[in-house]
Design a protein that fits this description.
32% of the residues lie in helices and 28% in strands. With 308 residues, it is of the alpha/beta class. It folds into two domains: 5-222, P-loop containing nucleotide triphosphate hydrolases (Rossmann fold), CATH 3.40.50; 228-295, Alpha-L RNA-binding motif (Alpha-Beta Plaits), CATH 3.30.70. α3 runs parallel beside α5 (137-149). Residues 5-234 form the ABC transporter domain.
């Protein structure tokens, strides 16, 4: 199936000489939720801005739903809804007027019932006649989301959409994202809340210093790069790990009361049974054990540190 966004050898160098993107190739699948992760200054917003026609690329091509984003800009842009990081809208307009204008801007006929549904889903219906300048920061963020959805886009970009917003809005927004995906909308998000990407995304891309260093299905990424750990709470503290066990991936806590055993999440043979047997042979007993595996955040941090 043809990707809904096809980015090839995209490069961006600003007038200052700073190279924000370095030959980025990326294909976004139709109907997926794609999370783009990276530290501040990695190139996330630049990439989104080029696809949305806000920033010009230095080199490379972008096709949006089959339309070249330069040669056929209007058709490409009409497929996209963008929720930017910054709160930027006409503060003196009402919420309702803002949505009607945004819908008309993309050539869509009036549809009050659709706009009402969007506002109700974002808990904005009772604010429809309020001027935007009178709204709280969280409500303004909701308006940006509603505005991005006003023209029924097939692609929705969410650039740090929940940064600094309340828990209620975050919950409402992710519910809406799930409904949009069920209706065939493709979602591309950047976020500092990596647990959200871990919960929501189908695929994850990691960008660092303008380079896309990894694109992978989330489940595959966590299986390939994740580690599992077994934490054993010991019956009695030990001073050190016995020399006979020194070759095992074991760590002893500072107080000597906890042993952590790390093993490959991909491996069929974990070595846990052999570990417990050998601990018993050395008179080391445990009173409790817990298993855990790497979070997406830990994988992301390890990937970025590896590129320092």
């Amino acid at each position: 199936m043809q990707p809904i966004i096809d980015i090839r050898r995209l490069d961006k160098t600003y007038a200052s000489g700073f190279r924000a993107l370095k030959s980025v190739d990326l294909a976004i699948r139709r109907g997926e939720i794609f999370a783009l992760l990276g530290p501040n200054g990695a190139g996330k917003t630049t990439l989104i801005s080029i696809v949305c026609g806000i920033v010009n690329a230095s080199a490379g091509t972008v096709a949006v739903d089959g339309h070249d984003h330069v040669a056929d800009f209007r058709a490409a842009r009409a497929s996209i809804g963008l929720v930017p990081q910054e709160l930027s809208t006409d503060a003196f307009e009402t919420v309702w007027a803002t949505l009607r204008f945004s819908r008309g801007l993309f050539g869509k006929p009036p549809d009050p019932a659709y706009l009402e549904r969007v506002l109700r889903e974002l808990s904005l219906w009772d604010k429809r006649d309020s001027r935007i300048l009178a709204l709280s920061g969280g409500m303004k963020r909701r308006v940006l989301i509603a505005k991005a959805l006003a023209h029924e886009p097939r692609i929705l970009f969410l650039d740090e959409p929940t940064a600094g917003v309340d828990v209620e809005l975050r919950h409402d927004m992710w519910q809406m994202v799930r409904r949009l995906r069920e209706n065939g909308v493709t979602i591309i998000l950047t976020t500092h809340y990596i647990e959200e990407a871990q919960e929501m995304a189908d695929r994850v891309g990691v960008i660092h210093r303008g380079e896309l260093i990894l694109v992978e299905d989330k489940a595959t990424l966590m299986r390939k790069l994740g580690k599992k750990q077994l934490t054993l709470q010991l019956q009695a503290p030990i001073a050190e790990i016995p020399e006979a066990l020194a070759g095992l991936p074991l760590e002893l806590s500072a107080d000597g009361g906890t042993l952590v055993y790390t093993f490959d999440a991909r491996g069929e043979a974990t070595g846990i049974a052999a570990l417990l047997r050998r601990l018993s042979e050395h008179g080391i007993d445990f009173r409790d054990l817990q298993s855990s595996e790497s979070s997406l955040e830990e994988i992301f941090v390890s990937l970025v540190r590896g590129r320092q």
